[in-house]
Amino acid sequence: MDTGIINWLLTGPVWLKYAVELQLLGKKPSLTQVLKDGSIKKIVNGLKDTQGFQVIKSGTLSYKGRIYWDIFFLADIGLTVKDLHLEKVAKSIYDLQLPDGTFVTAKEMKPNFFCIPTILLSSLEKMNYRDDLKLHKFIQLVLKSQRLDGGWHCSKSRATGQRLQDSESCPMDNLNILMLIGQFEKYRNDIRFNAAIDLLLTHWDRRNEKWRPYGFGIGTDFTKLKYPVVTYGILRVLDVLSLFPYAIYSKSFKSMMNYVRKKSINDMYYTESIVKFYSDFDFGQKKEPSRWITFLINRIEKRIIEYSK
Prior knowledge:
The chain is an all-alpha fold. The chain is built from 17 helices and no strands. The protein folds into two domains: 109 residues, no CATH class; 144 residues, no CATH class.
C-alpha cells in the first residue's frame, strides 16, 4: 500500500482513521473519539430512537431504506454492536425470523426472498453479533435453495424442479448471499460457491452483450463508484468477490479490478454517484476525492495481496 495514500486517509475524520488503522494497518485503535463523532452518533441514535427501532421491530423495513445501509456503513467501518450498544437493535432483527427459518423484514417481501435479509445479517456478522442457532437455520435454508446453475433466485417458479429451473439466477441474489457467506472463513474456499461466483464474473465478461439475467444489465450506472451500493454496482461486487480466493485468481475479477483502477487520479478515487441522505460524508459529494471510496478500494487491494501470497 502506498504510504502517501495511507497518510492522506489518516487525515480524514476519526471514524475513517479508525477503519484505516484497524483494517489496513492491523492496529487496535481507540474507540473513544469515534464514539464522540457527531456524524456517527447521529446514525447510531437514529437506530436507537423510537422511529428507527420501531421500524425494525415492526418488520416493515424496505431494503432501500436508510436503516439497512446505516447498519451496513457502521459494519464497514469495523464497529461492533457491543461498541455502539446496539444489542437491542440487533436482537430485534433476529426476532423477525419466522419458525421455518426465513426472515420477512418488509410487507412486500415473501419468505423466500433470501437476498434482502442477507444485507442485514451480513452486517451484523461483521459487527460480531449473531444468534448462532437462527443464523445457522437461515444459512441452511439458503444452501438448500441453491439452483442448478449454482446461484439463487427469489422466484419459486425458478427453483430446482420447477418449470423455469434452467433460467439464469439473479445477480443481486448471488451478490447478497455471497456477501453473507463470505463473512465465514470456512466458506471462503468452499467449492459449492464457485458457480455463483462465476455467474457474477460471467455477467461482467458479457457486459457488452444484450444478455440481461433477470433484467440486470451492466451499464453506466453499474460501473459508477458509489456508496453505499444500494443497487447492483461494481464496488460492492468487487468487495464481495474479494472475500473469495477463487474469484481473485480469475481473469474476470482482474479485468473488473483494472477497470476500477483506471478511475484513480493520483491513487485517489472520486464518488461518481451519490446517495443524498449521506451528504454529510465525503462519499456523498463528487467535487473532492473521497477518502472513504479510496479506503474501500485499498481494502480490496489488501485482500488481493494477502490471497496472492
